[in-house]
Design a protein that fits this description.
This protein is an all-alpha fold. It has six helices and no strands.
């Protein structure tokens, strides 16, 4: 069996990104609005619940990094979520919805876009490893 060190490293990076965003949204959502310079900050409850999901994905990807065999559906869910998040950020800018700070928005687009692209590449590269045992 070939080494999958690149997959393991990417899952650790996914985990750290998910945990940083997730724990911030979950425990200190009131910091997010001013940070992004939103004209009307979103209510804390609209940030806390996605924070729970992001934190869960962070824990799951860290756990998956130890043994990714048969975890293709989880990998697909993380890559799909990142891709959709990136597309929604791009749409919000193109439609004029987003009126906040551009540097942090650009960072979020690049982070979700790059991590998702690398994640999809690794998903297809390690399809055999990630496929559930039959």
């Amino acid at each position: 069996m070939r080494s999958h060190a690149d997959l393991t490293a990417m899952l650790r990076i996914f985990s750290i990104a998910f945990l940083v965003y997730g724990l911030t949204f979950l425990f200190i959502p009131e910091m997010v609005g001013p940070l992004y310079k939103e004209p009307v900050p979103p209510p804390a409850n609209w940030l806390r619940w996605p924070g729970g999901y992001l934190t869960a994905f962070g824990i799951a990807s860290w756990t998956m990094a130890r043994d990714p065999r048969g975890q293709g559906l989880l990998m697909m869910a993380m890559c799909t979520g990142g891709t959709l998040a990136c597309l929604s950020l791009l749409y919000s800018a193109a439609s004029g919805e987003y009126k906040g700070a551009l540097p942090l928005w650009t960072f979020a687009v690049l982070l979700t876009g790059v991590l998702s692209a690398i994640g999809w590449w690794l998903y297809f590269k390690y399809q055999e490893l990630l496929r559930p045992a039959t």
